[in-house]
Amino acid sequence: MSTDTVPNDHPDDATAILRPGRTEEASAGTMTSTTTDAAPRRRGYGALWVSVPREFAFLILTMPIAILGLTVLSSVFFTGLGLIFLVFGIFIVVAALFIARGFGTLELVRLQWAGRREVKRPAWDRADRDQGFWRTLFAPFIDGHYWLYFLHGLVINPIVSVVTWSLTVAWTSVALGGTTGWIWQRYIPDDGREVWLSEVVLDWLLPGEGVNIDPQVAEPIFEFIVGLIFLATLPFVYRGLTLLHDVIARGMLGAWRSEALEVEVAQLAASRGAAVQAEDASLRRLERDIHDGPQQRLVRLQMDLATIERRLEQDPDSAKVLVGEARDQAREALDELRALSRGFAPPILQDRGLAAALESLASRSPVPVIVEVDLADGALPAPIERNAYFLAAELLTNAAKHAGATSIRLRVGTRDEGAAGHWIDVWVTDNGHGGAVVTPGHGLSGLDERVQGLRGLLVIDSPAGGPTTIGAHVPYVPLAASDAV
Fold it and tell me: Global pTM?
């Protein structure tokens, strides 16, 4: 047995440490890892200019799309409203709400394409709403998100889009026209022109001074200066107008915080239910193991002692033999009780920590085990250490009993995922025949329930012929942080 330090990357591994947030793929038996951002975003005035093409495309297309949405929504909705007394008008109104959802989703996609942070969308296809065809069809009537999308597409977006589109066109025209006017204005006849903006501004800035400058010279210079000012401020205007649409979209088209809380409550309820089931299964198994093991030996020990008591005077030699057998029965019962207790919280775990406990666990395995431990600095919470030990013990036991393996690798490590929190990973890999699956009522099913109760994830990769890799990933709060709370 050996205790090694696990590096952050294992290119030779069949799997990579699972990252939080990829539970769908992992639950299907595929172990993946997310990628981090390739590079930090650029900041400053130059970064604003980098976003100008995308923001301009977003803003210039906003009003046509908004007017199209207004036309389609008003036509469909009010047609359905007028025909609602004929019953099928209800279906037309529902269609209008779905169309509003489509235009709202398009707005969110366009904002994300323009460089804005993704807006979390409502959960349209929640499982608790799947209550038959008719209830699903008329769900928009009772879903506030549909009506907010409809209000956005029919009223808010057209009004805001007219303002932002007009400002975009005006600002862009002044910026481009002012900075390039000295090139093309010479070809435009200005005979009879009576109002020169340069003269108006000079008279306003220097009243009564009587500054005489040829307007043919002053006008291009004035327009060029104004064009430069508008061109320099163009990125700020585009960013501000895009942010206005972004703020409105987040308020009207995004998911509500109450929905996130609802999902979290549902997850907590599911985790609690899984924890209760896992604990019940563990207690039942403990009861069965005690009944089939130590209890039977103690019953036999009691019978042997009664027999010894009867034969002690009449047949001392036979009683002496029975005493030896009773002593063996007591020792075996004690060994079984110790083995059962080690599956929960052995003394070495409390005295010397998780690493030493795992090393001791591996030394008792009938199959050779390579132990690799990479724990973060600082002590883990005691419940996390106990659960990690229990998971490792169960996985090693399953591999030794059912995999037909000749070698097992146990790897336990912690990782800090930043906003995703801290995680402890327990990996067990064997070279057995593979084919491990979660079967209700069996060992891996109980482990899966226990991990779910800890709000974690159990990942199984066990193709036929092996090897088998099983990973348990459990979130935890570091000891220092939990003490602070």
Answer: 0.52
